[in-house]
Amino acid sequence: MEDRNYNLEDAMRILAETYHKILKINLTTDTHVDIKVYQSEQDDTHGYSQKISDWLRNFALSGQIYEKDREQYLQFTSLNTMREHFEHSDECLRLRYRLRTNGSFRWVMMELLKASDYTSDNQTLMLYIQDIHDIYIREFEAQREFEYLSRFDTLTGLKNLYSYRSMCDMVSTEPSPRPVGVMFSDLNGLKIVNDTMGHDKGNEFICSYAALLCEHLGKYDVFRISGDEFVVLSIDDSEDVFLANMKKFKQVVNADDFPRAAVGFAWMRSNHVADVTAAAETEMYNDKQLFYNRHPEFQHSIMERTYHDEMASLISVLTDSYEVLLIADLDRDTYHIIKQNATSINAGEPVSGIYSRRNDNFCNDYVSDEFRELRRQVGSIANLKKQLRTENHIICNYRLKNGLWRESAFWKTGADTDETPTKIIYYSQAIDHSMSERLSRRHSS
Questions:
Q1: Do 230 and 209 contact (CB within 8 A), yes or no?
Q2: What is the DSSP string of 361-414?
Q3: Contact 87, 81 (CB under 8 A)
């Protein structure tokens, strides 16, 4: 018995140190028993009353609860709220709010739970209030830092790829198209800076361009979406205003002997920011080529140029067999056609754009009814990310609306740390006559 008393005393001491108010309240009789209460709270200035409903309400109205938390506190401490909850649940009720303590407001936690003698006819609860200010502030700061890191680029302070995608998603839900302007820029010579002067200088180069963007285009949303790629996004600017501002900025960039970045921009009324970005990116590539024409020393080393010449020859040979050859970025949902035959059934399509939209449009426009959903599913980003985690490539045979058979292949060329594919090469080719006949007979049977 003596040991048990010591244990009880220890438990009560710990409770007394942890909580600065402990009450046993009775919802049935609207009364309370004070187990631990500061003497200062048991006076008229704090609205003290033997009726627990009056005391809780008067305490809030006496200015002890932070103004913005007061309404929530009053609702939480309403006896009707407590009765309704505990009639149907045994779970603890918790409220976090700010309480005046020694002249300043600190975060506290109120907890309500059923007492051991609680019955439907004698609704007794235990009420505990604990100071959580220091812990909560640390958690709040950590959460704020996490939210910052999820939305902003840590090197430049610009918004990041996640923020850009969130903006795309937001605009896509608008009921009608909005004026969207995008400037896409890619740094010139970052690889050479990194290779010859080190990555610290490369980071300085990135930050200097980010600062230039903010200085001249800070009224817009500015994103760093990859290592050396930046997007400036305008929503609701008129075409004239947006293009004028972009042209002024391009003049600033081109004023240097060696422009720091290639720049492209586009404007259209759309709910699809990615479409406008793809158009701006295409213009950027044109500007990049002009820069390389003027400064070929920044493009590639002799070895790289030889390699790319050989690759270009190989691609040319491949394209004699393949109707279309393209690369796709699954994370960014974009594609760029490397080369396609003039005889390709979709030879007039844009050189670059939204991959998922191209996949849907191709299936709708050219694939026969019985194979449309199969081909659409195989080529979808979700399926490619799933299947190509364990396979290097997927091949799909299907029939076109004109009755001819075609083979499409999707090859993984890039993956993240868990082997989820990030980039693919896609090709399609006509199937020879004998194989077409075999496939037709198999499909018919």
A1: yes
A2: HHHHHHB-HHHHHHHHHHTSHHHHHHHTTT-SEEEEEEEBTTS-EEEEEEEEEE
A3: no
Give the type of residue at 265: F
Which tokens go with 335? Answer: 């594609």
* Percent with pLDDT over 90 in the chain: 51
Q: In the predicted model, what is the mean pLDDT of the chain?
A: 84
What are the pLDDT digits (tens) for 418-435? 788 999 989 888 876 555
- Residues 6 or more apart in contact with residue 366 via CB below 8 angstroms: 345, 346, 400, 401
> Among candidates 354, 336, 349, 220, which has minimal Cα distance to 274?
354
| Half-sphere exposure of residue 326: CA atoms within 13 angstroms, side-chain side | 24
Supply the pLDDT for residue 301.
44
In which residue are the tokens 């290639």 written? 262
**C-alpha to C-alpha distance for 264 and 216, rounded to whole angstroms:** 16
Structure token digits, residue 23: 């009450």
**Tens of pLDDT along 250-259?**
999 998 878 9
d(C-alpha 171, C-alpha 233), whole Å: 11
Instruction: Please measure the distance between the N-terminal and C-terminal CA atoms of the chain and give it in whole angstroms.
Output: 87
Strand partners, 229: 186
How many other CB atoms are there within 10 angstroms of residue 242's CB atom? Answer: 22
What is the rounded CA–CA span in Å between residue 445 and residue 441?
A: 6
**What pLDDT shows up at residue 115?**
93
Cα separations in angstroms, 412 against 93, 388, 393, 425: 52, 6, 6, 7
Q: Answer for the pair 417, 384: CB distance below 8 angstroms, yes or no.
A: no
Question: What pTM value is reported for the model?
Answer: 0.46
Strands 93-101 and 178-187: unpaired
Neighbouring C-alpha atoms within 13 Å toward the C-beta of 6:
3
Residue 402 has pLDDT above 80, yes or no: yes
User: C-alpha angle with apex 92: 111 to 36, nearest 5 degrees?
Assistant: 30
Distance CA 389, CA 395 (A): 15
> Helix or strand or coil: residue 226?
coil
Q: Which residue has the tokens 């400064």?
A: 295
Q: pLDDT by residue (tens digit) across 264-291?
A: 999 999 999 999 999 999 999 999 988 8
Angle, to 10 degrees, between the axis of helix 355-366 and the axis of helix 369-378?
A: 170
Residue 430 in 3-state DSSP?
strand
